[in-house]
Amino acid sequence: MKRIIIVAACLLSAVVLFAQPQGHKQNEEQRKKEFERIQSEKIAFITQELDLSPEEAQVFWPVYNQCWKEALQAHKEMRDAFDAIRGKKADDLSEAELEKKLDSYIQANEASNQVMAQWYPKFKKVLPIRKVAKLYQAEEAFQMRMINNLKKHPQRPPQDGAPKEGKDKK
Asked: N or C of the chain: less Cβ packing under 10 Å?
């Protein structure tokens, strides 16, 4: 589950970032609307896949939403820690500073994993185990859907001057 939520958070972040028109930065409101659109799509997808009864939905969604909120925060901390050691930033650090930044990244990664470990039993308390399994499957399927959408409709120019996949190849 931890991997699923982390990857979902990455994908949602990527979708929000990659959905920017070429040469233009989306303002915060546009990013928020895109994030909300994706979240709505995900909620509909999970609801359909789990076939939740009204009673199950009433107890499941508050638990899921809290889990998701904590997972996003943990992932943000992990991403921020990784950004501190990415590329040239790492080259400019002393070995002691780099080691400290790496330690922070590892700790943030472990904290992110711990969030998910804490929520699995809570899902089991509010849903039958078969629906918990379907939740994992739905998360994975939704992630794959988002990845496929990004592959089919890349909207961000490539970095490092590399040609876009599929566009410049003939």
From this structure: C
